[in-house]
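Quick one, T. Sequence first:
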Amino acid sequence: MLSDDFRIARHSDVIRVGRNSVRAALIKLMDELELDAVIYPGSAARPAGLPTATVPMGSTRDRLLRPGLQFVGRPPDDQLIMNLAYSYERATNHRRPPP
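Structure tokens:
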């Protein structure tokens, strides 16, 4: 029987490997398509330690949900990601105060 310590260590190994796989896949995609960033609907989760910014992309018709648009870039392009996110936010004006 495995000890709890072994199970915890193995779980953290899986998380680390998963994050490294996500990081490698995103960087490979950006390399293959010659992209500076990847933009997709998402949450505030930061994939694999890559530079990330999330901005509002509108709201549902009933205004109960406010989904976000996530900008993800290469390390160390933090400033590029912030500039892209800021430009999108200014152009769309989707940010609204909560009801």
